[in-house]
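TL;DR need structure tokens for one chain.
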Amino acid sequence: MNKIIKYSILSILTGFVFAGCSDWITPERVITQHPDQQSPILRDDAYYQALRAYKQTKHKVAFGWYGSWTGNGASYQTRLVSAPDSMDIISIWSQWYDLTPDQIADKEFVQKVKGTKVTYTIFLDDLPKPFQCEGWPNVSAEEQDRCIEAFAKAYCQDSIVKYNYDGIDIDYEPGFGASGPLVGNPAPDLFNRTLLAMSKYVGPKSGTGRLFMIDGVPYAVRGEYAELFDYGIVQAYASSGYSDLQNRFNNAYNVGWKPEQYIFAENFESYWKNGGVNHTCRDGQRVNSLLGMARFNPTQGFAGGFGAYHMEYEYAHSDMPYKFMRRAIQDANPAGGYMTCSLTSSALEKANFMLEDDGSVSGEMNISVALNFSRPLSEDVSFNIVLDESLVDEYNKKNGTEYIAAEASRVTLAPITAAEGTMTSEAVKIGFDPKGLGLGDYLIPLVVEFPEESIYQPEGGKLVKYVLARINQLGMDLEATALTGTKIEPTADWTINCWQGENMEGANGVWNLDSDAQKARMFDGLLDSNCWYAASASYSWGNGGNFVIEMDKVYDINGFRWHIYYTDSNPEILDFLYSTDGKNWSSLMGGETFVPKVNDNWKIFQFTKTVKARYIRVMVGKVTGYTSMNEAEIYGPAN
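>> reply
TL;DR here they are.
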């Protein structure tokens, strides 16, 4: 982008956002019917030209559903023109057809002058009745497709052209009261075929430039069908923090959605007065949830944007209409030309090494570090990575771990480089020499260095990538078909908890394992249905899960087995961990994985050594069908 355009855009952002911030700090009497008069910006042709140019750049989009739209009346709350100039997309949440001359003029101004995209929202639990042929949906596939095609053309071509919209948004909420032949999670074939028909007229596959969006439960749309959409908008209402947003996106990422497609939205019908609810950011800051969504990026990359349901409610702020939306826009796309940088993955990554019987260490660290940028780079850049051993103690205190600081001489690092025009750097592989080290977990805190007073701003103030080099010995007999030793008799204090993926909080995705009483029955020896869990590929554990058993005290343990209750696909075990305190974990797998042998419906885990543990944690890989349990037994050495 040339410098003239570049500085014009910065002037826009500074003017219509920073000026507003000043007004919030020193409230003045304002005329809320005319929010444009509260800013000293000269809104001339050059201003609007630069505004439209800004909206063509890569940045987090500001989105809002707009209700009560009439385009006239004493209050500007009913007019799209009242929305912040920097809104990227507004979707009509009221009557979108049979528009009045006032609505047409109002919409045309924000589209043509401000460059804002205006779409309309529909519910699509079923085809609208005018498009349902006799007997629908219980007709042949050919007849279904004929009805679907007529609907798609009418809504995504004819109506858009007639009313001059920029696209369409589908409200799709399986599991939240929606019902109909097109509703399901995962989305049924009939809905997917409807999406394919619509995608000929809207969305990235159409070539029309018209937006195709879906809100509610976007991750119900999976695989190649996710690629049909520009954006999926998740109704993350009353979001308490970044972990909630990350878990929501993980559901989508696991079925094919990309970070840049996802928009996180708050409910301003309920929370407009405060900009949402109290929300904890990844760096620990407490902010309103709309601002938290604007700041949030999944660990998989930069998010697509942020937004609000019934954004027009926020017009009623007497000090500055839409003040929380304005602040979120400024925070996500700051004036002054700052380039926000984040790690493509900030999660702790582990490399497993095996200590052999002769004292040698085998294994390789296949871990790399890369950066995301909030918009395409205007030049080639390079940033150094350094090892900061001082962060090990800080990490241990914060997380209750006892990791060992890795010596800098064992770690090999190279600068991170990124080319002009890109938004992601080259991945830099981290080298580690484990020779001569004993058993243990060695923490490697890597910090990305940025030049002082540069335009590059690390997300959260500092970018730290933690890598764990774990040196283990294989402590599991991978071929065992039976256990040795003696079963440890459980007490009433034993319990079990299950979670999806590698999480140790949030949804468990299992059945009949909710109450303390149910959990205690996992150890009652009855092999009945009073307590059992079943994790399925379609419902909860399609991409794996884990469970933790907590005993009443530390025991000497040399084996474990679980009994299958239901049909079982016997998935791969990714790791088997034990701990005395539930914080510091040791692995018996040494980086190996295995499928346990099954004997009389018992999965067998025979240790090659006796360990001391109060907790055991089993990491289960991708489930292709079901995996199930209705009894767990822990063994110790024979008396």
